Amino acid sequence: MNIYEQQARNRRMTWAVMFVFVVFFLAIGLGFDFFYLRFTPLKTLGYGWNAAGYYDVSAASQPVPFGTIAALLIGLGMAANSMLNGRGMVLRSTLARRAVSADEKERQFLNVVAEMATASGLQPPEAYVVPDQDLNAFATGTSPRNSVIAVTEGLLKSLNREELQAVVAHEMSHIRNYDMRLMTVAAALMGAIALLSDLAGRTMRPRYGSLYGRAVPSRSSSGGRKGGGIAMLLIFIAWLLLVVLAPLISRLLAMAISREREYLADASGAELTRNPLALVSALEKIRNAVTPTYAINNGVAHMCIADPRGSLIEEKMGLAADLFATHPPMEKRILALKVMAYQAERQGRG
Prior knowledge:
The protein is mostly helical. It has helices at 3-38, 66-94, 104-120, 153-158, 161-176, 179-204, 208-215, 223-273, 276-288, 319-324, 330-349; strands at 97-98, 126-130, 137-140, 148-152. A 4-stranded mixed sheet has the order 1-2-4-3, sandwiched between helices.
């Protein structure tokens, strides 16, 4: 798959991710409108309200889906805000500053960024340094024209030029493949889903008793009414499960995308430098760092070359690492790069 096919694939994936989240927004919003309006008692009668003091969907010719509208506005608003302001928020949260040529290590960093930009066919991204002694790096920005590559002070001190080149090439691959746009949108929508689920759950909680009483009539009620009430209760339970599980499902989706992009960036970066073993060496040094990257918070974790929290979950081989980690296990990444180096060596001999 060439770079243009990869960019097109990422654009399709971005739209697919947005579609999945929109389905979540609609399901939560429409369910909220239906149950909230149907089972909310009022003291006064009005348009669309029946004599029992409850909103009657059939009595209103044009009910306004306030919950659905609010859900879509929240999702679109958070996604738009992250696209417009995400880069600045990330840099401010990490206290990153521009790299300066007066410092020898930072001058080398600037030169490497320019070299890898030329190799990628892109304009050089801005180079920033994060004031942290741990070893880490990340890219941010929604397109190559407004992109940034940031590395920690610890990484500049610990890596040699070839290793630094490999790390910058990895981040350049994220930029070239539009990975940051994809992950920015996914992270924003994941937060919107969590917010909506919390708001819907809090608002509906006082009405659970009212719902149960109206959905499960007394024994004297007719069989048809009982059946309809039980069906309504089951639909409500299904919607409630969606409200509870939507944040988890959206998080799993975002984490799966993040892990896939890391594997691809490793391979693409190694192709840029034609030196997979340099990235192996850099990843080994990053893995062996003993402290978390304190300057980088959890919201930026998916952008980094390694989990900044120092979490051990990505080092485990198993279901937890396959589902909940933002990055693939480091051992798997290193093994894949070593296989890539071996195959390149064999082809060179041939």
